[in-house]
Specification:
The complex is a heterodimer of chains A (about 120) and B (about 110). Chain A is mainly beta and about 120 residues long. Chain A contains no helices and 11 strands. The chains are: A mainly beta (about 120), B mainly beta (about 110).
Chain lengths: ~120, ~110
């Protein structure tokens, strides 16, 4: 089975621009979560999608949004980029039904976003 | 706000040494604890998912224990090898229905 893929792998943007990141989960997985990692911070939860519905959202401003398509692929969008948005963005997919916390998360390689 | 704390922050051992790290979390509203290994330039890889107090998991030379009453988990590596060099992350899932990660323990194993 192919793993989780993320595109693009690297991205450079300037302040004020917007960006869209893409995540393709493992075939058959319907749950996709997004995380942000900045230096010195653990992975910070952004949001989780299951069957095209956002189930949960982390403590991030409204500039961060996402969606999931019927094929379970997910995108996240960041509008009006700020310098502090420079980070590694990881997505993870899992095969169960969310809510119990016992599903193994399978992570993609991440997208490294640099905001200048 | 749920805080998941990992210690030590980093560790440097010699090949063959055994080592262990700690993950601490609030014991209330606990659902599950995950351990991941994250090698440089790779994706985080799941090691264990643990739910029950007293749970013990083992995968080769790596094992983990869980104490939900006092809010901690230990990860042990027996006879460390250079290929064990990685950052080890723990994450806790609570009733707020999201995984909260610690900042990780960075392990370096020298030959």
């Amino acid at each position: 089975k192919a793993g989780v893929t993320q595109t693009p792998r690297y991205l450079i943007k300037t302040r004020g621009q917007q960006v869209t990141l893409s995540c393709s989960p493992i075939s058959g997985h319907r749950s996709v979560s997004w995380y942000q990692q900045t230096p010195g911070q653990g992975l910070q939860f952004l949001f989780e999608y299951f069957s095209e519905t956002q189930r949960n959202k982390g403590n991030f401003p409204g500039r961060f949004s996402g969606r999931q398509f019927s094929n379970s692929r997910s995108e996240m969008n960041v509008s009006t980029l700020e310098l502090g948005d420079s980070a590694l963005y990881l997505c993870a997919s899992s095969g169960g039904i969310p809510g119990q916390g016992t599903d193994t998360q399978y992570f993609g390689p991440g997208t490294r976003l640099t905001v200048l | 706000i749920l805080n998941v704390e990992q210690s030590p922050q980093s560790l440097h051992v010699q090949e063959g040494d055994s080592t262990n790290f700690t993950c601490s979390f609030p014991s209330s509203n606990f659902y599950a604890l995950h351990w991941y290994r994250w090698e440089t330039a790779k994706s985080p890889e799941a090691l264990f998912v643990m739910t029950l107090n007293g749970d013990e998991k083992k995968k080769g030379r790596i094992s983990a224990t869980l104490n939900t009453k006092e809010g901690y988990s230990y990860l042990y590596i027996k006879g460390s090898q250079p290929e064990d060099s990685a950052t080890y992350l723990c994450a806790v899932y609570t009733g707020f229905q999201k995984l909260v990660f610690g900042t990780g323990t960075r392990l370096l194993v020298s030959p």
